[in-house]
Structures are given as structure tokens and as C-alpha cells.
Design brief:
Its EC number is 6.1.1.7. 45% of the residues lie in helices and 17% in strands. The protein is built from 15 helices and 13 strands. The protein has helices at 3-15, 46-50, 102-116, 133-142, 155-158, 228-235, 248-258, 265-286, 295-313, 325-332, 337-341, 343-377, 385-395, 399-408, 415-448, and strands spanning 20-21, 59-67, 69-70, 73-74, 88-96, 124-129, 150-153, 159-161, 166-177, 195-208, 214-227, 382-383, 412-413. The strands form 3 sheets. Strands 1, 2, 5, 6, 7, 8, 9, 10 and 11 form a 9-stranded mixed sheet that branches. A two-stranded antiparallel ribbon has the order 3-4. The protein has a two-stranded parallel ribbon with strand order 12-13. A hairpin with a 5-residue loop joins strand 10 (195-208) and strand 11 (214-227). Helix 8 (265-286) crosses helix 12 (343-377) and helix 13 crosses helix 15 (415-448). The protein binds adenosine-5'-triphosphate (ATP) and magnesium ion (MG) (3 copies). The site of adenosine-5'-triphosphate (ATP) has 16 residues, from strand 5, strand 10, strand 11 and helix 6. The site of adenosine-5'-triphosphate has 16 residues, from strand 5, strand 10, strand 11 and helix 6.
């Protein structure tokens, strides 16, 4: 079964259960200051859950473009090192807005997985929130899951929240154990590639406010999210998402460009990272984000620089990321037409970013290696703040890139030292700008004697904030 067919079957299944199929919202949310990127299918329905907005339908389903690189859901560190966390992924979802609840959500999830897709029941596991007896009983009543395969977990795994505030509630998840030891409960939520979470059914019941307090919502809702790339791997009998038809064309192109084969783990990691990151970059840029120095733009810049540097590990030196856009558009452009429409623009933006980082990347890597040699001589394993700062300030290395390079060789970075230098730089910038405004003020005051009254002071908000979001 191709990934296109799998996506379509999901949507057809929920259409047959009277769900309205709605478009994915952009991956860059323009109307939610609590979010840098869309991190779940439910984001576009937040107002419905909170009771501040309505839709003309009570049931919906879609495939939602998500990016998880900041805030509460941040998987950046895992990406490429494991085979099932991506920065950008599609989340298949179905929703009930004050309509059906736990029973139908569980029943239909089971029906799709075991009757339509015929996944082996003996390998499936369900988890419920520790106090959720209702969901626990429903799994036994409305499905034929092995009752021993229903497990209870606490807040961390079975209470879902989109961010620090907003709609949330207990959830029930479905995991699949693909190992020979599939009847063993200890695999579930253990973070192994043999047993992965494929679908989360969230029972939205509360809103968490800024003080952390939970408030009952006016109605109860269902919000589900299934990892599309993960379910494709399972249905295509692959042990890695990167071996599915979603990623293989990208991997093939990277193999072609680099001349390195996709074989040893050492080469596979950079190839997976690159195949992953080009998706996040393309979709985010097509939806209006631009690499830059602050907030969302800086997150993109970090992703791009990370990918460029991984390219160096497989001999890719000239700008290469932008060349992958065409392959991505040829595999996904018919489903997400925005990347096809913006294809040339996206390539230009990525190429320009690659070129500007390329100018300093090799010299930065050299500096990093000099520092490591120096530290090795003294048996030290922490990259000093000054060097981290120099890499940032002179060579454009985001601190997480330096940390990653350090981690790869068993080193760490002195983040506190780095932050101190950053703060000092910011302070200097603030002072410099104060002086500038002081002189502007003088001029304006002078002019005011000529009856010009508008001499509003402009508030300076700082340079390159290095927030970890
Ligand atoms: P995990 O525990 O594997 O990190 P999660 O519990 O954080 O997943 P949810 O927030 O429950 O994930 O999201 C719903 C579904 O989206 C998950 O069941 C999973 O299939 C998929 N998913 C979550 N994060 C990613 C990711 N980074 N890449 C690909 N799929 C993901
Ligand atoms: Mg997660
Ligand atoms: Mg989980
Ligand atoms: Mg989950």
C-alpha cells in the first residue's frame, strides 16, 4: 500500500462515519501567540474546544502538517538519531466537538486498525490515564483487545496538553510492538524503536490557565492524532519511517548527491537528518516563515544550519539542501499544493541561507576542532563559553549546533558561560541604542521648538534574542 493510499483510507474511513474532511491549517500559526509552529491537529480547533468559536460541523477529520521543534513538544534532538521522530510530520486526526466521546473514539480507532488495515491484534497495546476507569472498561467492552494489553500510565504519557496553557485532558494511546517479545508490557512507553506509539486519542475536558489551574470546559470533545509516517512504516513492513515511500525518494537523492551509500549507521544518521529537515524547511517557508535572527525565523535557521553541517559528514559541501526541494515537491506537491506553488521561492530562500552559512561553516568546524584538540591535551571535556560564543558570533553556529557537535564526541558545552557573554553583548547593544536615541531625542527636542510635536520614544527590544523557546 502506498502512503497516498493510506492517507486516503484514513480520510475515507472517517468520512464514512460522518466526519467533514477539512484542510490542514498552515504549519505557521498566525493567530496563536502561544505557539511558534503548529504542533498538533487540534490547534486549528482550539477556539471550538474553549467554547469561543464554532464550526458548522460536529465531526471533522484531516491530515495536519505539524512541526515539533519548540515549546512543550520538541523532538529536535531525537530526529535522525531514531527512526520515528521527525521535526515535520503529518498527523492524521479525527475530532468530535461536543458530539461522540470515548466509546466511539476507541471503537473506530480499533476498527480502522484491525479491520480495515488488519494490523495483528496480538501486537497492539492500549494505554489509559491512571484514573480513567471509563476508558479502561471501554477498551474491554467495545474492542476485542487482549485485556492484559490495557495499561495505565500517569500524567507524562496519558495526559495530553498542547502547551503550557490551553485545552487538555486524559488520553488513551495505541502502541504496536513489532518485536518477537510482543506480549511483554515493559516495552510500552519505553522509547524503543520496536514498540512505538501510533495513535493518541485525547479526551479534551479541561482548559489550563496561566497559573496552571485546570477548568472544566463547557463541553467534552474528542481529539485524536496518529503519526502518518509511523503508520505507513508499519503497513509497509518497514522498521524505519525513512524506509517508506515518503522518505525513500529523498534518501535516494541524498545518496546521489553525496555519492555515499545508505548503509552504515554513521552515514544513515546525517542522511535521515537531512531528509527530515528539508521537509520542515520547505513546509515552513512555503507557509510564510523566513529564516532569521529571532523567534520562529531563528528556529528555522537553526534547523537549516544543523542540516548543512550534517551534510559535511557525507561530503556535501556546496549548497545542496535546496536541490532536494524538487524531489519533495514531486512526492508531496499533489497533496499539499502550497509547496508546488512556492517551489521556486522556497528553493531561493534555502539556497541563499545555505550560501551565507557556507561562507563560515568550514572555518567554524576548524575552530571547533582546534578547541577540542586544546581541551584534549588538558583532559577537559567542556567547551568553554568563550569558544561557544565565538562560534555563535563569528561563525553563525547556533548554540544547539555546537552542543550537538560536542555531544557527538562525548563533550559538553558551558552554557552558563555562553549565556553570560550573550547577556553582556545584549547589554552593550542596549546601551549603544540608548545613546543613539539620546541623540535622536536632542534633534527632536530641537525640532519641537519649531512646533513638531510627535517625538515619541521608540522602545528598543533587543537584538538577536537567543531564546530556547
Ligand atoms: P512520542 O511519545 O512517540 O514522542 P507523543 O506522545 O509525543 O509521541 P502525541 O503528542 O500523542 O505524541 O501525538 C500524536 C501522535 O503523533 C503520536 O501518537 C505519534 O504517532 C505521532 N508523533 C508524535 N510526535 C511525532 C514526531 N516527532 N514525528 C512523527 N510522529 C510523531
Ligand atoms: Mg513526544
Ligand atoms: Mg508518547
Ligand atoms: Mg502521545
Amino acid at each position: 500500500m502506498t502512503s497516498q493510499e493510506i492517507r486516503q483510507q484514513f480520510l475515507d474511513f472517517f468520512r464514512s462515519k460522518d466526519h467533514r474532511i477539512v484542510p490542514s491549517s498552515p504549519v505557521v500559526p498566525f493567530d496563536d501567540p502561544t505557539l511558534l509552529f503548529t504542533n498538533a491537529g487540534m490547534n486549528q480547533f482550539k477556539d471550538v474546544f474553549l467554547g469561543t468559536g464554532t464550526r458548522e460541523y460536529k465531526r471533522a477529520a484531516n491530515t495536519q502538517k505539524c512541526i515539533r521543534v519548540s515549546g512543550k513538544h520538541n523532538d529536535l534532538e531525537e530526529v535522525g538519531h531514531d527512526t520515528y521522530h521527525h521535526t515535520f510530520f503529518e498527523m492524521l486526526g479525527n475530532w468530535s466537538f461536543g458530539d461522540y466521546y470515548k466509546k466511539e473514539a476507541i471503537m473506530w480507532a480499533w476498527e480502522l486498525l484491525t479491520e480495515v488495515w488488519r494490523l495483528p491484534k496480538e501486537r497492539l497495546w492500549a494505554t489509559v490515564y491512571k484514573d480513567d476507569d471509563e476508558a479502561f472498561e471501554l477498551w474491554k467492552q467495545v474492542t476485542d483487545i487482549n485485556p492484559k494489553h490495557i495499561l495505565r500510565f500517569g500524567e507524562k504519557d496519558n495526559f495530553w496538553e498542547m502547551g503550557d496553557t490551553g485545552p487538555c485532558g486524559p488520553c488513551s494511546e495505541i502502541h504496536i510492538n513489532l518485536s518477537d517479545d510482543y506480549d511483554n508490557p515493559s516495552y510500552v512507553n519505553a522509547g524503543t524503536p520496536e514498540c512505538i506509539e501510533i495513535w493518541n486519542l485525547v479526551f479534551i475536558q479541561y482548559n489550563r490557565d496561566e497559573t496552571g489551574k485546570l477548568h472544566e470546559l463547557p463541553a467534552k470533545h474528542v481529539d485524536t492524532g496518529m503519526g502518518f509516517e509511523r503508520v505507513c512504516a508499519v503497513l509497509q513492513n518497514k522498521s524505519s519511517n525513512y524506509d517508506t515511500d515518503i522518505f525513500m525518494p529523498l534518501i535516494d537523492e541524498i545518496v546521489k548527491l553525496s555519492g555515499v551509500t545508505y548503509k552504515n549507521e554513521e552515514d544513515k544518521i546525517p542522511m535521515r537528518v537531512i531528509a527530515d529537515h528539508i521537509r520542515a524547511l520547505t513546509f515552513a517557508i512555503a507557509d510564510g516563515a523566513v529564516p532569521g535572527n529571532e523567534g520562529r525565523g531563528y528556529v528555522l535557521r537553526r534547523i537549516l544550519r544543523r542540516a548543512a553541517r550534517y551534510g559535511r559528514k557525507i561530503n556535501l559541501k556546496e549548497p545542496f539542501l535546496f536541490k532536494l526541494v524538487d524531489v519533495l515537491v514531486s512526492t508531496m506537491g499533489s497533496v499539499f499544493t502550497e509547496i508546488k506553488e512556492k517551489q521556486d521561492y522556497v528553493k531561493k530562500v534555502i539556497k541563499a541561507e545555505e550560501e551565507s552559512f557556507n561562507a563560515t561553516l568550514d572555518r567554524g568546524i576548524e575552530l571547533f576542532e582546534d578547541v577540542v584538540r586544546r581541551l584534549n591535551k588538558n583532559n577537559q571535556k567542556i567547551i568553554p563559553g568563550e569558544d561557544v560564543f565565538k562560534l555563535y558570533d563569528t561563525y553563525g553556529f547556533p548554540v544547539d549546533l555546537t552542543s550537538l557537535m560536542a555531544r557527538e564526541i562525548g563533550f559538553s558545552v558551558d552554557e552558563a558561560g555562553f549565556n553570560k557573554l550573550m547577556e553582556a553583548q545584549r547589554k552593550k547593544a542596549r546601551e549603544a541604542s540608548k545613546e543613539k536615541f539620546a541623540s535622536v531625542n536632542v534633534v527632536l527636542t530641537d525640532l519641537s521648538s519649531f512646533n513638531i510635536t510627535d517625538n515619541k520614544q521608540v522602545e528598543f527590544t533587543g537584538y538577536d534574542e537567543l531564546k530556547s523557546e
